[in-house]
Amino acid sequence: MQTAKKLKFLANDPAEDVNMPQTKPVEKPVMTQDQILKLIGKIHDLHDLCLMYVGIFCGPRSSEVLGLQWRSWTGTTLVPHGTAFEGRFYPGRLKNRSSRAPIGVPEQVRPVIEAWKKLSPDPSPDALMFPTFGRASGKARRCHGGARTFSGGGFVRSRRSWKSRKASSRFK
Q1: CA distance 172 to 168
Q2: For residue 14, is it left (φ>0), alpha (ψ between -120 and 50) or beta?
Q3: I want to staple 72 with a disulfide (CB 3.0 to 4.6 A). Which of 47, 68, 97, 172 is the partner?
Q4: pLDDT tens, 99-129?
Q5: What is the DSSP letter of 157?
Q6: Could you give the CA distance from residue 157 to residue 35 in angstroms, rounded to a whole number?
C-alpha cells in the first residue's frame, strides 16, 4: 500500500478504517488411538489400507496423497509432484513451496506401500499411486445429493454423499 501511495497510484490507504474481523478457532475432530486401530483393523482392501496408512502416519494433505505417483516413492520418502482431484492429476500444483519437500515414511508403513505397488494395476512411474475412479467393489448407486457412491468394501468417494448418508442416518 505504501508503494502505491509513493508512486501516486493512490492518494490514501482505502483500508485504513477497516477493522480486522475476529477469527474464532475451529474445533477439529481428532481420532483416538483406539479409534484409529479399529478403523485400520476393518480395512481389508490393500489400496485403501495403504492410502489410510500414508494419510494418517505421513501427514500430507488429502489432495497431495491422491496426487502421489509411483515416481514419488523413493523407498524411504514420498515426494509430491502435484495434486489430484476427481481422478485427474495436476502436475506442479501444490499449496506452497514446503509442500514440495520429501515426506518421511515411517518404517512400519514402507512394507504396506511396497505390497500395494506389487498389486497395483499400473505401477509405472507416472501412474497415480491411489487411483480413485474405476475401483468400485460393489454396485454404483445414487445418494440423496445425486452423487455417486459405491457399496461394498471400498471407501465412499464423494464428500457430498457422505454428508447425505450421515444426515439420513440421524433421522432413522
Answers
A1: 7
A2: alpha
A3: 68
A4: 778 889 999 999 999 999 999 888 899 888 8
A5: -
A6: 21
